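Budget justification note: compute hours in this period were largely spent on complex prediction jobs such as the one shown. Inputs:
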Amino acid sequence: MDIVVLMKLVPDLVEDLEIDADSGLLDRSFLRLVPNELDEHALEAALLLKERHGGTVTALALDVGDVDEALFTAVAKGTDRVAKITGAGFDQGVGNQRLAALFQEALADVPFDLILTGTQAVDDLDGFVGALLAERLGLPYVGYVTRIVPENGKYVARKEYPGGLNADIEVTGRVVLGIQAAERPPRYVVTSKIMEAMKTASIEEIEAGDAAADAEIRVTAMSLPESGTHAEMIAGSAVEIAEKLTKLLRERGVVT
Amino acid sequence: MCGEVCVVVETLRGEVTDITYTLLAAGRQLADGLKTRLTAVLIGHEVQALARTLGKAERVVCVEDASLADFNPDAYLRVITTIFEPHPPRVVLFGHTALGTDLACGAGRRLNIPVVTSCRTFSVEHAELRYSALTCGGKIIATGRLPAPSCVATVMSGGYRTEDGKVEKTPAIETRPVPARLDAARTRFKQYIEPPAGDVDIAKQPILISVGRGIQSKDNLALAEELAQALGGVVCASRPVIDQEWLPVTRLVGKSGKQVKPKLYLAIGISGAPEHLEGVPEAETMIAINTDEKAPIFDVAHYGATCNALELMPLLAQKLGQ
Amino acid sequence: MAVATSYEFLDKVIHATPDGEKIRKCLQCGTCSGICPYGFAMDYPPRSLIAALRADDWLGLLESDTIWLCVSCFACANVCPAKIPLTRGLLATLKTEMLVGGSIPQELQVALGNSRRYGNALGEAPSRRAEWVKGSPVPVPVLTGRKEQTDVLWFVGDYGSYHPRVQLVSQAMARILHALEVKFGILGAEEVSDGDAQASAGEGGLLALLARKNLRAMGKYSFKEIVTADPHAFNALKHEYPRLGLRHPVKHYVQFLVERLGRLKALLKTPLPMRVTFHDPCCLGRVNDNNIYEEPRELLRAIPGVKLVEMSHNRTLAICCGGGGGGMWLDGFSWEKAGTRTTDWRVKEAIVAGAQVLAVACPYETPRFEDAVKSTGNEGKLVVKDIVELLAESMFG
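Corresponding output:
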C-alpha cells in the first residue's frame, strides 16, 4: 500500500494574529507557521496503515516556513520519502485551490494507492485541499474520517457525523481521504531522532511548474472580531471572582 | 437554474437537519436581494414528505432512489453535477458540515466554479453579493465578494436563526430522474455506528460545565466534577479533552458532537473555536474562564474572567455549597 | 538506534554516563528502592531494574510504564553505597529508550511537544514570555536590542515567566534586586526553557536544542554572571551548558543573596513572627551533588521574627515535591499509579513540624504545594511562600 500524505503549514493560533494595515489581510511578516494539526493525524493514520499492512508513506508539502523541520520529523516517525514543492511567493500565503493544483502537478510521477490529508486547516477559506485535489485527480473523496480498514481490495472509511454518530463508507479504487482524527494521537518522536534525520535523510525538491489555479477567490478584507458583544468581565482574585459568580448564578436563578 | 440561488438540502436518517434551515434563511436573503428564485435540491429516498418543510424555497427539486437513501459522497456528487450542469446557479449553498463539505468542493470543481467555505453571513448590495467568513479558529473575520457569475459557498450555523428558514408554505416540488450509472459510484454506504449508549445525554442537561485544553490534565477533571456536583450539573468537554480520552465522546460539545442549549454553560479553559461554538448555539447564561483575555469565547459568553480556572473551580464549588 | 537487549542498554549506560561502569558493582542491597518516594508503586524500582537487566528481561522493562513515576530526585543515587549514577545514568537513559520506542504518557507528550515548539512546557506564546514585566512594581530591563553591559543576567524560566502564581515570585525577586542596586537584565522573549526537567524525562536532545537557542541569545549581550530563582535552570546552566559553550558563572539566588547578606539584613525591617520550615529543592541539594543546604536557611534566619523549624526529612533526606523528571507534567499519571502524592506528604510533614509557613526556593514548588495544602484540607493552616517573597515582605512591608 503506497500512501501519500499531504501536509500544510498554517498560522499558529497560540500567538496573536494581526491585520496588515496596507493589505487589509493577515499580517504574515511575524506569523509563526506550524504543521496543520489534522495533517499530523493524517500522517499518523498513514504510519499505522503501513505498520499493519506494509507499503510506503510519502509526505509532501509546500516549501514555506519551517517545513524542513516538519518533514524531517515525519522521517523520524517512519515516513519513507519526503518532498517539498519549491516556488516563489509562497510565503504570501497560498489558497487551497492553488495548493491543490500544485499538489496535482507534483504527484504526476508519484505512484500511490491512497492519499491522506487533514480534513481541514484553520486558515481554509476557498475549500478543503483534499476534496479539491480529489476532483482534479478524478478520484472520490470522503472527509471527516477517523478509521481506515482495507477490506477485500477496498477501503472501509469510518466517517464522523454530527452528534457522535459514525458511518462506514466503503470506497473502491484509489481515493483521497480527509482525516479528522487518527486512531491514536500523533506519536511523539524524541528530539535526537529528529536531529539524526536531519543529518541522514534528505528532502526531495520539486519545482513548481506553472500550475495555475482557476476558481480562486479574493478576500477583500480581514478583521478581528469586534468586541461589540463582549462578555462582561469579572475582575478580582480567584476568591472574589468565586463570590461574584455565586451571587450572579443565584440572581439569574441558575442555582438556589 | 442560471442566475438562481440554490440550497442543497442535508438530511440524516430520514430527517432534514437544522443546518438546512440556516441555508434556507441565507438563501432566501440572497434570492430576495437578487430578485431571483430560491431552489432547494433534495436527494434521498422517499423524501416527498420532507420536501414540504422546505417552503422558504419556491421550489424543491427531488432526486430519489433507493441507493441514495443514506449519504454516499460519490453518488450524491454525480446527482448534484447533473442537476447544475451546464449552467450552474449564481450561488449553491451547502452546510459546512461533515456531509455538506464532502460535496461542496467536488461540486465546485466539477462545475469549474470557485468555492468559499466557513461563511457565516451574507449581504446583498446592488446585486453584489458579499460573504463574511470566520477563519483562524474564530480569531479572524474574512470578507469578500461571492465570485460571479457562479460559485459554491458552505455555511456554518449561528449566522442565521433556523426559524427564519422555516415557513408554513408548501413549495412546488419537481422530480428529476436519477442520473445514469449511479451504480458505478465508487463509494457505498455500509452502516451506521451508533454512539455508545448508557451515558448521560448532555443535550438534555440544563447545567453544563464544559472543559477544554485549559484543564491541562485528566487529574484536574475531578475539580470540574466537584463543581458540577455543587451546581447540580454535568461535565462535558471540547474536542481536545475527548481526543485524549479523558471523557467519552458522548460528552463532546461541538460540530462533531452534541449541540446543547442549556440554562448555564460554564466554559473552562476553552478558547472558543467555531467548531466548538457550533455545539452551543444558545445558552441562557454562558460564563467563560480563560487566562487568555483575547480568547474568542469572550465574544460569545455573557460573563467572563481571566483567573486560573484550576484555582477558581474548588473555590466556586465551596461558595455554592455554603 | 533503538536498543534491543539488556546488554546493549547496559552498554549504553556504561559508556554514556560518567562513572557508568559502577553499575556493574550493584550489590542489590535495595537501599535505592527503599528510599525512592514512588518505589512502592513501580514495577521496577532501581534495584529491581538492575536485577531485570542482569536477567536480560529487556522486554519486560519496555512493557512497563512505571519508569515515568521517577521524579529525578536523586535520592537513590545519593544513598547508593556503590555510588552508581542511578538517576542520570540508569533511569534517565531508560526514559530515553522508552521515548525512542514511542512509549510516553500523553500528558508528558504535550509538555515535551510544547517545549520543542514554543520553548516552554506550558505551550504559551513565546512572544509573550516577558509580559509579566508589565505588572512588576519595579522596572525589569529586557536586554533585547540593548548594547550596554550589565552585571547580572537573570534567567527567569518558564514558570517564573508564565505561571500567574510564580510571576509573584518573579516580582518579589525584581524588587529585591532593585533594593540591592543590582544591575541586571532578562532575555525576555529570547529566553526559552532551560531544558533540565525535559532532559531528566529522557529528552537530552531537547535540552541541547533549547540550550543552543539560549546560548545564541546570551551571546548577544554582555554580562558577568547568571542568577536564577529556578533550581532546575541552575542545575542545567551549571552542569550541562558549559560543555555546550557557556562560560559565565551560574548562581541560584540563595547563593547570590547570601553573598550580600550584610546589606540585605539592613533592609529587612518588618518582623515576620512566624514558624517557617524550609523545603530543600532536589536540584539545589542532592542533584549533581550541588549540596546547597545552608544558604536558604541563612536567608530565612536573617528575617527578624522568623523561627526556623525543620521537617523530619531535610537536607540530603528531603522528600521531592514530585515536580522533577517530568513529574510536573504527569500529575494525572502519577495519581493513577501511586494513589498518593509526595507533595501531600511534605505538607503534612510541615504541619507536624509546627510550621505556619512552608518556604520554598523553586518555581515548581509554589503551585504544587499550594495545591497540596488545599487537597490535604489544610487551608488556613499552612501558607506557601518562596524565600524571596518572605524577604520582600520583610523589606517592603
